[in-house]
Specification:
With about 250 residues, the protein is of the alpha/beta class. The chain is built from 9 helices and 12 strands. The strands form 3 sheets. A 6-stranded mixed β-sheet has the order 1-2-3-7-9-12, with helices on both faces. Strands 4-8-10-11 form a 4-stranded mixed β-sheet. A hairpin with a 2-residue loop joins strand 1 (about 5-10) and strand 2 (about 10-15). Helix 3 (about 135-140) packs across helix 4 (about 145-155). The longest helix is centred in the last third of the chain and has 19 residues, at about 210-225.
Length: about 250
């Protein structure tokens, strides 16, 4: 069974991540599935809006760090979505946890609908890692700076009501209703001219092109440093063995 499925609902493409036994963590097969689905959304003129969602209990726990696979795809970059240059609107419909790369997938979308079960978080530093799929610059863009710092360095999560108040979430629903609300929002988008919507998104995204380039540069630098640190091995071993990490490394100046 595929870990990513698609369903056409008129002019809307619903993309589902379905790997619940691993909390919808992204492995190579899943990244390829997201890439293929978003290629379809980008290339088919009959599709005007996309929705990406998980299962009823979890959106995505991000990278499946046990597999350590290369998850960068030809068109979309990480997970097939993170660096994708899109002009077709994409809505994230979030039930349950959106952690690490799962939150970064939501940050790569244009709109976010969350149910009251949703929790957003960036726990990478607790694993001896850094967020490498856009959160280092997209979280401070989407959230107040101190809140972005809070998520990035404490491992705390953001509940949907606070996320709505801070503007990173567009709508909060009752449990199990995130996809339904995302479909309502998608139908409202489809009432607009697809050319107008596409050009609007292209114009808005162009405002951040230079910032994104710098954001990827600092992300790559952080990733290179963490890969050279003993913290990454300790963090991943602690995670695999369900124990508290024992940090010994003193950060360089």
């Amino acid at each position: 069974m595929s870990t990513v499925t698609t369903e056409r609902q008129g002019k809307v493409l619903v993309i589902r991540i379905e790997r619940e036994e691993r909390r919808n963590a992204i492995n190579r097969e899943t990244a390829e599935g997201i890439e293929s689905a978003l290629d379809l959304l980008d290339d088919d003129p009959q599709l005007w809006v996309g929705i990406i969602t998980g299962t009823n209990t979890v959106f995505s726990a991000g990278t499946d760090i046990r597999e350590r696979a290369d998850l960068r795809m030809p068109r979309g970059g990480e997970y097939g979505i993170i660096r994708r240059q899109r002009t077709t609107p994409l809505i994230a419909a979030v039930e349950g946890y959106a952690l690490g790369g799962g939150f970064e997938i939501a940050l790569a979308c244009d709109l976010v609908v969350a149910s009251r079960t949703a929790q957003f978080g960036l726990p990478e530093t607790r694993r001896g890692l850094v967020a490498t799929s856009g959160a280092l610059f997209r979280a401070p863009r989407a959230l107040p700076l101190n809140v972005a710092r809070e998520l990035l360095i404490t491992g705390r999560t953001l509940d949907p009501e606070r996320a709505l108040n801070l503007g990173v979430v567009n709508s909060v629903t009752e449990p199990g209703k995130a996809l339904e609300e995302a479909l309502t929002m998608a139908s409202q988008i489809c009432e607009s001219s697809p050319t107008s919507v596409s050009l609007t998104l292209k114009s808005v995204n162009a405002l951040y092109t230079e910032d994104d380039s710098q954001g990827w540069e600092v992300t790559d630098t952080a990733r290179d440093h963490i890969l050279a640190s003993p913290d990454i091995a300790e963090g991943l071993d602690a995670f695999a063995n369900r124990r508290v990490p024992r940090w010994n490394n003193v950060p360089s100046a």
